[in-house]
Design goal:
Elements: H1 8-35, H2 40-67, H3 73-102, H4 104-108, H5 118-224
Helix pairs in contact: 1-2, 1-3, 2-3, 2-5
């Protein structure tokens, strides 16, 4: 019997991360397309959102890289191909995002200088703080999801062990019944053999009695004719 702890759980968790990554990639592609149409503060805000999506995609790739080690080797080659495709897509999105972020004239417009005003720096710090909080919340959500799946896997394992224990009890009971039946069969065979021997003995005794009677009758008849 296959162990669900080794197969189903790993595959389920990897598929969950894969589905999340597809959603993040779709969102990231949409944000990168929108960046081209924006400038100034809206463009900066959209780039920050795209950076958040890239970091979330990296986190999911890290989780998938760990989980694919738990997948049986027979299916791991196919999983590795899909994983490399995801990595290539995310790397392409990173390059496009970097090119968009480096276009500082599009970001700042006519206000572009090598030393942005202090208000922009403070805004950037607040955005980074909010981004860190969002990232921590997403990590906590993934941790809770991993704990939920691990708990479900533990319950499946416990149920499987209970079923195996019940099956073992049934097998042991069946084995005891078979041994008891075998004992009954042995005693029946011995009884039949004894009955067969007694019948053979009785047959011999009967033949001997009949023979003696015949001899006595012959002798009696012979004595009358003398």
């Amino acid at each position: 019997m296959a162990n669900p702890l080794d197969t189903d759980a790993g595959s389920e968790l990897f598929s969950s991360y894969e589905a999340d990554l597809r959603l993040v990639q779709a969102d990231l592609t949409q944000k990168l397309d929108q960046v081209d149409e924006l400038s100034g503060e809206p463009r900066k805000a959209m780039i920050r959102q795209a950076e958040n999506a890239v970091e979330e995609a990296d986190e999911l790739l890290d989780q998938m890289r760990l989980e694919k080690q738990n997948i049986p080797s027979a299916a791991r080659n196919r999983i590795n191909q899909r994983f490399r495709t995801f990595e290539a897509d995310v790397d392409g999105a990173k390059r496009k995002l970097k090119a968009l972020a480096d276009d500082r004239h599009a970001l700042f417009g006519d206000r572009y200088t090598d030393h942005p005003p202090s208000s922009d720096a403070q805004l950037e710090q607040r955005q980074q703080l909010l981004h860190g909080t969002d990232r921590l919340a997403r990590s906590s959500d993934r941790l809770r999801e991993s704990q939920r799946i691990a708990h479900e896997t533990e319950q499946i394992g416990a149920s499987t062990l209970a079923d195996l224990h019940s099956q073992r009890s049934v097998i042991e009971h069946t084995r005891g019944t078979l041994l008891e039946s075998e004992g009954f069969v042995d005693r029946s065979v011995k009884t039949l053999r004894g009955m067969s021997r007694r019948m053979a003995t009785n047959r011999i005794i009967t033949v001997a009695i009949i023979t003696v009677l015949i001899l006595l009758i012959v002798l009696l008849i012979a004595s009358k004719f003398r």
